[in-house]
Amino acid sequence: MVMLADTDAGSVVTAAQSGATWGYRLLLVQLALVPVLIVVLELSARLAITTGKGFTELIREHFGGAWAGVAVGTLVVTVLGALVTEFAGLAGVGELFGVPPAATVPIAASALVALVLTGGYRRVEVVGLVLGSLELVFVVAAVLAHPHVGAVAGGFVSSQPLGNHSYLALVAANVGAVVMPWMIFYQQSAIVQKGLTSRNLRVARLDVVAGAVVTQIVMGAVLVAAAARLHSAGPLRTIGQLATALAPALGGTAGRVILALGIGGAALVAGIVVSLAATWAVAEALGKPRDLNRSVRHARPFYALYVAVVVAGAALVLASGSLVRLAVDVEILNALLLPFVLVFLALLAHRALPRPYRLVRGQRVAFAAAAGPLIAVALLWVGLALGL
C-alpha cells in the first residue's frame, strides 16, 4: 500500500512534467530508483518486524525524545506538503468535469476522515489497495499514446544535461517523488499495526520488491505518455493540458476519465497513507495509544489528531497556486529532507536490529550504495539553490 501511495498526485505530475520537458531522458532515473526503493523499504520492514516498534518509537527509545520530536517535525512538513498536492490533484480532476475545488476538496477530506473513523486497519488497507490499483490506467495511457520505440530507447543513451539548472531540479524532484520520508514512517507503523512477526519477513520482502517494481512502472508510464504527447508542446502547466494532449489517442472523454481514475486513485490512497503516517508518528513520539482498530470513543486524541492533519491539508490547498509548480516543489522538499531520515534509518539498523537480523557486509554496502546518491542529490540541490 505504501508503494501505491508513493505514486501520488505530486509524483504523477512530476513524472508528466519530466516527460513534457525533457522527453525520455529521465526514464533512466525512474528505473535506477527501483533497487533504491527495495533496499530502503526492506530495511524499514526488517526493523519493524524484528523490534515490533515504529520508526518514531525507535528513535525515541535509542536517541531520546528531543530527536524523536525533530523527526516528527520533519515528517509533518513533508506530510502537509504531500496532502496539499493530493487535494490539489483531486481539485484538478474535479475541474476536468467542471466541479470547482471548493466542492471537490471538502468532499475528499470528508471521505478520508469517514474511512478511518468508521473502519479498522484491515478495511482501510483494502480500500487503499483498491484505490491505488486505479493507477494502472496510466500503463494503458502510455501504450495508447503510441510512443516511438526508438525514441524511448534513445532516452537511455542520450547525453544528460547535468549543467542545466532546471534539469537538475527535475532530477531532485523525481528522487523526492519516489523515495519519500513519510514512506519509512508509515511502513514501520503499519507493520506493527498488522502484528507481523519474523515468520512474515520473507513475505514482507517480496511485497517490497513487487511494490517497488509496480510503482516505478506507473511512474515510467506517466513519463512516457507525457513525452509522447507533450514534449513538442513544452513544459506542462495544468492537468487539463495533459488531458488535452492525450485526447487524440484516447478520445476527449476517455482521456479525462483515465486521468480522473489514475490521479484520483493515487491522490486518495496517498492521502490515507500520509495522514496516518503523521498521526502514528506523533502518537509514538508522545507514547500514546495508536491502534487503528480501537474505537473513536477509546482513542479520541489519536483520531482527533488524524482529523486535524487532514483538515490542515485541505485548508492549505484552497490557497495554493499551480498544481504543477506546487507538486515539483514539494518533491524537491522531500529530496532535501530525505537524508535526515536515511541517517536515522542507518543508525537504527546498527543499534536496534537483533543480532540474527543485522545487516551483513554486503547488505551494508547495498544500503550505502542506495542512500549515497539520494543524499548527494539533496546536497547538490542545496548547493544550486545557494548559488554555490
Distance between the termini: 39 Å
Strand content: under 5%
Q: Which series of helices and strands comes N to C? A: HHHHHHHHHHHHHHHHH
Query: Strand tally, please?
Result: 0
Helix content: over 70%
CATH topology-level fold name: Amino acid/polyamine transporter I
- Known CATH architecture: Up-down Bundle
Radius of gyration: 20 Å
Structural class: mainly alpha
Largest sheet: none
Uncertain stretches? none
Query: What's the CATH first level?
Result: Mainly Alpha
- Overall, the morphology is globular
How many domains? The number is: 1
Q: What's the name of the CATH homologous superfamily?
A: Amino acid/polyamine transporter I
- Average residue pLDDT: 84
**Count of DSSP helices?**
17
Could you list some keywords that capture this structure?
Amino acid/polyamine transporter I; 17 helices; 0% strand; mainly alpha
